[in-house]
Amino acid sequence: MQTIYYDLRDTKGQQKEIEDKISAAAKILREGGLVGIPTETVYGLGADGTNPAAVQRIFEVKGRPQDNPLILHVTGAQWLPRYCEDIPPVAYMLARKFWPGPLTMILKRQPTVPDETTAGLDTVGIRCPNHPVTLAIIREAGMAIAAPSANTSGRPSCTTAQDVVEDVGGRVDMIVDGGPCTVGVESTVLDLTCKPPRLLRPGGLPVEDIERLIGHVDVDRAVTVSLGENERPGAPGMKYRHYAPKAPVTVITGSPMKSAKEIERRVGPTSGVICFDEYAHLFPQQLVHPLGPRSDKQLQAQRVFEALRSFDSSGVTEIYAQCPDNRGLGLAIGNRLKKAAGFHVIDADSRRIILGLTGGTGAGKTSALNALRDLGGQVIDCDAVYHEILEGSEDFKNAINEKFPGVFTQEGHLNRKKLGQEVFAKRERLDQLNTIVFRFLIPELERRVEAADGLYAIDAINLFESGLDRLCDRTVAVTAPTELRVKRVMARDQISEQYARLRINAQKQDEFYRGKCDCELNNASESPEEFRKEARLFFERLVETVQEEKRHG
Ligand code: TXA
Ligand code: MG
Question: Which of 2, 91, 200, 255 could form a disulfide with 234 if both were Cys (CB 3.0 to 4.6 A apart)?
Answer without folding.
Answer: 200
